Amino acid sequence: MIRDPKDLQRYTPQERANHWVVGISFILLALSGLAFFHPAFYPLTYLFGGGTWARILHPYIGVFMAFFFVLMFLRFRKLNAMTKTDKEWLSRIGEMVDGDDHNMPEQGKYNGGQKAMFWASVVCMVLLLVSGVLIWRAQFSPPLELVRFGAVVHAVAGAAMIALIMIHVYAAIWVKGTIRAMWYGTVTRAWAKQHHRAWYREMTGK
């Protein structure tokens, strides 16, 4: 939906649906995963009908999320290729955090931080998927040593993924006007010019 004819299209409906499917799946996985990570979080299993159902559903939701994550990866991998400008942007991220972003290198559709987040998420997702298969004992029977190793990797990668998503959500809230891109698919020209000037030039020819 174009809220203002002057707005710029940032995401298609398919891209937004893909994002939200992955996002909602991740929330369900984080809640059910935390329930088995520490006894203090075990009451979260009641959201899934109890411990047994949480344990049954968790890996299937994981496979579901992995499928849509792969689709998202295929959609956005080229746009997230790191460039020399992105590395310079990352080296000066302190200026961005201090709110002085006027002299930052011009960024395309995604800045260096977003690209770093994308690739870190890909690494975590691969680790979660492989380690998840190793510890899915209802379906597979790997050696016990591999199961133990998989459990450690799954816990570490899961914690890292939760941290990444928290940063992702915080950044989306912190940069005013960002969230509407995933609700409506559009951003204002002022937002694009301030935060992604190279992409703004590409879209407007200015």
Task: Tell me what you see in this structure.
- This protein is mainly alpha-helical and 206 residues long.
- The protein is built from nine helices and two strands; from the N terminus they run βαααααααβαα.
- It has helices at 13-37, 51-76, 84-91, 93-97, 112-134, 144-174, 179-183, 189-195, 197-204; strands at 8-9, 186-187.
- It has a two-stranded antiparallel ribbon.
- Helix 2 (51-76) crosses helix 5, helix 5 (112-134) runs antiparallel to helix 6 and helix 8 (189-195) crosses helix 9 (197-204).
- It is elongated.
Write a concise synopsis of the structure shown.
The protein contains 9 helices and 2 strands; from the N terminus they run βαααααααβαα.
The neighbouring-strand order within the major sheet is 1-2
Spatial shape: elongated
How many alpha or pi helices?
Answer: 9
Largest sheet: 2 strands, antiparallel
Radius of gyration: 19 Å
Give the mean pLDDT.
93
Separation of the first and last Cα atoms: 24 Å
DSSP summary, beta strand count = 2
**What structural class is derived from the secondary structure elements?**
mainly alpha
Q: What is the string of helix and strand elements? A: EHHHHHHHEHH
Strand content: under 5%
Unreliable segments of 5+ consecutive residues: none
Helix content: 55-70%
